Amino acid sequence: MYPRKQLDIRWSDLAHAALYCAFPGSIRAKEAELEGMFASPFPVLSVFTVRTGFDLCLGAIGLPAGSEILMSALTIKEMVNIAKRHGLVPIPLDIESGTLAPEITTIEDAITERTRAIVIAHLFGTRVPMGPVIELAKKHGMLVIEDCAQAFTGQDYTGHPETDVAMFSFGSIKTMTSLGGALLRVRDAALLRKMRIIQRTHP
Q1: How does DSSP classify residue 64?
Q2: Which CATH number is 133's domain given?
Q3: Residue 106 falls within a domain, yes or no?
Q4: Which of 53, 84, 103, 117 could form a disulfide with 47 if both were Cys (CB 3.0 to 4.6 A apart)?
């Protein structure tokens, strides 16, 4: 994989974005339209950023303080900080240089009786094979969250069908940028309702 070295956006896109800022219309209607366009068998939630969505997700799940959450070792610091703010203990998972993914044995060795969730980040356009991760998570009763912020290239992949939450970013340096925003595909309808309730309290 090679970096793009240029933003995937046109001047006309920037002009449209500026016009929308001046005349936004119904934001909720636009959100519903966007959510309806996402090709997923499960409902999606539009959020400000993946970090916002991750915070919503952890707040709605409400894991006990001191619970461990496994996370790909290569991630942005704020994702780790969000987990800590929810009273969780982030456990880094080393990734292999050839695949940019943690080995399944690495994940298994990191699991303890306090492990409650795992966050797998698809890095630099790669996609981690989620099947073995899902099976291991089922065995240990863990929630599975996919961080697809760097891996969205279209509707061909909207997360593994058995992933609890899959997060997609449209920030300024992401593939298929919209200069901001993110979508979360949420498998459990009850969890999604809780996330929406929390989201309504945000300014």
Answers
A1: P
A2: 3.40.640.10
A3: yes
A4: 53
2 in any annotated domain = no
Residue 198 CA to residue 52 CA, distance in Å, equals: 11
Report pLDDT digits (tens) over 77-108: 999 999 999 999 999 999 888 888 899 999 99
**Token output for 108:** 């298994």
CA distance 13 to 193: 32
Q: Name the residue range of residue 152's domain.
A: 43-199
End-to-end CA distance of the chain: 39
Residue 140 is given by DSSP the state H
The total of structural domains in the chain comes to 1
Is residue 113 very low, low, confident or very high in pLDDT (cuts 50, 70, 90)?
very high
Distances (CA, A) of 141 to 117, 131, 136, 159: 8, 15, 9, 19
pTM: 0.79
- Between CA 127 and CA 137, with CA 132 as vertex, the angle to 5 degrees is 110
Determine the Cα–Cα distance for residues 71 and 90; give it in Å rounded to an integer.
6
The residue to which tokens 């959510």 are assigned: 35
Instruction: Let me know if residue 188 belongs to a domain.
Output: yes
